[in-house]
């Protein structure tokens, strides 16, 4: 999806590779036979392409393996049919990586979904009894107190089971965020980024941490 901070395209490429569904189900069945019944699909976007994800869920349901599983969903490819099939296939928890509740920041992060799609996804997960965990990445390019408050208010309205907040965004080599950070003078010319460096928009340093800690202290479903 070419989010500005993501290293996945550089590490894994931009081609979607799909195992044959029957091979996936067979592999899971072997683990079930060995005594495992909890699984986690580690794909960055379980639901892309949507047609494949739905086909896999149907196959898992038909196999009747009795498993429970988790995955990461991209809010831009979620509909009711998808969530229903996931629930029928044994999905019990989803990580919904929406990153921000501000349309302005979503655009700057090069996200291709809207806050309305995030809300609709969250509501569908709740409807079908799938726990939802959300993520907020605060402090990216263009972030202000106004956009932070917008994100917090939005996240609070979703009724998530868990919310993870991150202040500052890791800068990986070869990403658009690296170019922005170098342009902003946040990285030395000879810094190869082997050691972690984080982007935090100027002007947030003094108040963002205290604000987030206070906000989280009043909401037990939040974690840093």
| Count, helices | 9
CATH topology: pyruvate-formate lyase- activating enzyme
Number of separate strands = 8
Judged by helices, strands and strand pairing, the structural class is alpha/beta
Distance between the termini: 25 Å
CATH superfamily assignment? tm_1862 like domain
C-alpha geometry: globular
What order do the helices and strands follow?
HHEHEHEHHEHEEHEHE
Beta-strand content bin: 15-25%
Unreliable runs, pLDDT <50, ≥5 residues?
none
User: What is the helix fraction of residues, given as a range?
Assistant: 40-55%
Largest sheet: 6 strands, parallel
Q: How would you write the strand order of the largest sheet?
A: 1-2-3-4-5-8
Please state the average pLDDT score: 95
**Rg (C-alpha, Å):** 19 Å
| CATH class value | Alpha Beta
- Provide the CATH architecture: Alpha-Beta Horseshoe
Number of separate structural domains? 1
Explain what this protein looks like in three dimensions.
With 224 residues, the protein is of the alpha/beta class. The protein has a single domain, classed as tm_1862 like domain (pyruvate-formate lyase- activating enzyme). Helix content is 41%, strand content 17%. It is built from nine helices and eight strands. It has helices at residues 8-12, 21-33, 50-63, 80-88, 103-108, 115-127, 145-157, 176-183, 208-217, and strands at 38-40, 68-73, 91-99, 131-138, 162-167, 169-170, 198-199, 222-223. The chain has a six-stranded parallel beta sheet, covered by helices on one side. β2, α4 (80-88) and β3 form a beta-alpha-beta unit. α2 (21-33) runs parallel beside α3 (50-63). It starts with 7 loop residues before the first helix and ends with a strand. The relative contact order is 0.13. The mean pLDDT is 95.
